[in-house]
């Protein structure tokens, strides 16, 4: 990666953030907070890391992405639109009657969504299944799974961590959006996860700690995960809930609340560097 490419990814990140704000505003519902904190991870993954074909979403050799925290689908929809899966204009149909862009992603309505999600705690198990199938079939594809930190309070995630390590699924890459907040507030006050990276290590995962808002750092983390053999990898990325919008950052109340028109104008100004 050269710096010009990284700068282009940063521009796409701004557009994806703006898309998230606009689409949740148009829907008058949705989850902007945890979508905004995952932008760099998704843009780096879809634009530079995953082997996929937006024009052929069912290509058998594609890498697979699984959104375990299904409520954060606005960031995935926006990234998919910006990489050519469907027109950007369709984003404004989020949660509308008859839309392909459901409030939680549906593989039955939108090509490119591998598995419907929304029930928290299940995504890593599904990613393991696809990764194990790739191993058995001798296929080269990898499985990526984005999880929320609050979601890690769900027991099935820990069972999936054991499974991936047991089968040495080095074609699995977990991504944890470690923004420290969930719908009920501070993660550590609701159900503490610290020391999170050490817990993953104790389950025999290769752990990569990264700044989730540094595109170059995320590209390096994905590359390290790909080069790691004999065990699964997880990127524990430190992030800010509501990143890029001044009044949303580190505020749990924006977990599932869209902007009104006035707030959206301020949010877009913040995202494009024109805020007060």
TrEMBL record:
Gene3D superfamilies in the record: 3.40.50.970
Organism superkingdom: Bacteria
Entry keyword annotation includes S-adenosyl-L-methionine: no
Keywords associated with the record: Thiamine pyrophosphate
SUPFAM superfamilies linked to this entry: Thiamin diphosphate-binding fold (THDP-binding)
Domain Transketolase N-terminal: 16-267
CC cofactor: thiamine diphosphate
Similarity remark: Belongs to the transketolase family.
Protein name from the UniProt record: Transketolase
Source organism per UniProt: Propionivibrio dicarboxylicus
């Amino acid at each position: 990666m050269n710096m010009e490419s990284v700068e282009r990814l940063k521009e796409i990140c701004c557009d994806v953030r703006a898309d998230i704000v606009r689409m949740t505003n148009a829907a008058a519902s949705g989850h902007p907070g945890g979508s905004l904190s995952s932008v760099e991870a998704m843009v780096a993954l879809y634009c530079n890391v995953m082997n996929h074909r937006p024009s052929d979403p069912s290509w058998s050799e594609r890498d697979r992405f699984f959104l375990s925290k299904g409520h954060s689908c606005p960031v995935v929809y926006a990234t998919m639109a910006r990489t050519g899966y469907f027109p950007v204009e369709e984003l404004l149909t989020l949660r509308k009657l008859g839309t392909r862009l459901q409030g939680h992603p549906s593989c039955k309505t939108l090509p490119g969504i591998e598995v419907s999600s929304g029930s928290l705690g299940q995504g890593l198990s599904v990613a393991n299944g696809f990764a194990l199938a790739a191993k058995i079939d001798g296929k080269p594809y990898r499985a990526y799974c984005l999880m929320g930190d609050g979601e890690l309070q769900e027991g099935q995630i820990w069972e999936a961590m054991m499974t991936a390590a047991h089968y040495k699924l080095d074609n699995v890459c977990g991504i944890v959006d470690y923004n420290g907040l969930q719908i009920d507030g501070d993660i550590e006050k609701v159900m503490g996860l610290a020391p999170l990276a050490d817990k993953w290590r104790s389950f025999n995962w290769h752990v990569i700690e990264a700044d989730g808002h540094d595109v170059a750092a995320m590209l390096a983390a994905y590359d390290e995960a790909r080069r790691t053999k004999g065990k699964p990898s997880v990127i524990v990325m430190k992030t800010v809930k509501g990143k890029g919008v001044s009044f949303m950052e580190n505020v749990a109340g924006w977990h599932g609340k869209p902007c009104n028109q006035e707030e959206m104008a301020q949010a877009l100004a913040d995202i494009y560097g024109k805020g007060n």
